[in-house]
Amino acid sequence: MGLVRYLQHWLSGIGPALQVTDFVPQSDPIRQWADTFPWNALVDAIAQSFATRFPKTSTRGRRPVPVRVLLALEVLKHALGASDEDICRQLRTDFAVMYAAGLREYRRNPSQDHFVLPTTLCEFRGRIDEALMDELIAIQAAAAMEAELVSPAHLVVDTFPCEQGSQRVTDATTLYKAQKKP
Amino acid sequence: MRSFGRSCRGQGKVFVTLVRHTEQQLLEVGKDLTTLGQQAQMCLENTTTLSETQRERLREDLTTAMRHHEHIRQQSTHLTHGKKLRHCKVVNAYDPTIAPILKGKSNCPAQFGRKPGIISEPATGFIVANLTPQGNPSDASYVLPLIDKVGQATARVHHGPKRSIHSLAGDLGVNDPVVRQALHERHILSVGIPKTVEPIKPDPSAEEIRDILNEANLHRKRTPYQVQLACASGYSRPVVESHIATLLARGAGTVRYKGLEGAVVQQGMTVMSSNGAVLVRIRQRKMTKRAQKFRRLLGLKYPKVSKIN
To answer: Does residue B126 share a domain with residue B14?
Structure first.
């Protein structure tokens, strides 16, 4: 009996996938927020920038976490005021966060696509430079203008001060620094 | 916000004599640091137990520390001799790009940190572009780079009418003749930028509109209707404070990522998340009466769900 229970995934398969959209109503704030972003254009811009600046030298290794997931987590992190660890943990358990990250199916024995480590998020962030960041904001603004939601006709400019806070010393940052050091 | 300097307002006190005395002692202690640093560098070169990668990393760390020390020592000496603070005074030994904010409210301690700039739509609060520069330059220097960024965004719009900036509003910090001239050359009205502390007139007369167009030399470039909207936009310029408050509520007030690059990424991501929330509000038509009226005057359509994706 114990052996059958141990092998039940092999015998019965992993079963049908759960549709994430079934669990996230249209009125959900995170879903509505996520639907405003032109994800395809944003992901294309990032992929193009990364391919130029960080060319792949080998095709070996584990399949990378999709850029769409990482970008959504990074933006959502600021929308929710969460830390790297919090947002990565929510991605495992919260269907709304999965929806925002572009994951539409959830399997009990998943292909690890939605398992993102905080260090991965930290590394992704480190690859974003000023030009790419400006491009991402420009893409978002252009999409909003094209949909005639906003107009650049009359604008207002201002500055605000912000202080340099201490970087949070978390397990993720410590591990990232340790890995970077030879 | 951390700050230093004369504290005429607030509860903070700065013991100048104590600071100067301690500073002298520290300068005396650190006098030999340059020599010691050079000796350490020589020792590092002669060490055989380290790998080349480790040696390179240590060499880089040592050089950075020496450079920062030299900079801090130099400015401390200047301060002790009673000279005026330079623009790029180091206030954080780990990040020399942080500088004091020179302009601000009078008789207040000088703030230091970063000073991001935003350019936003006054009606809805959508931030079209942002800029996080190195150091803390004057407010006027933000205008043209931000306008360029908006131009990059409008160039990406391929459908519908051609988008262009008609007017720009700002506070007295942006009031600079060179900036005004540059805006006029780009066919942008600068009537929203005040010249005095007096508020801008929201409903100018026909003569005043003609004067504004003549002054900007944009007679056939901008219409009187656009001038009216520009004046209304300039009159309600303080609404930008609410846009900034929205960003601050999302953690933009404290930069938690390292260095200037980190600040750029954090501010950019905050702007993107804030813009997402603004678009949700527009789609749900949860806007103020003023914003709704402004959208009507600009001829913006009613939002259609799932239009972007």
So the answer is: no
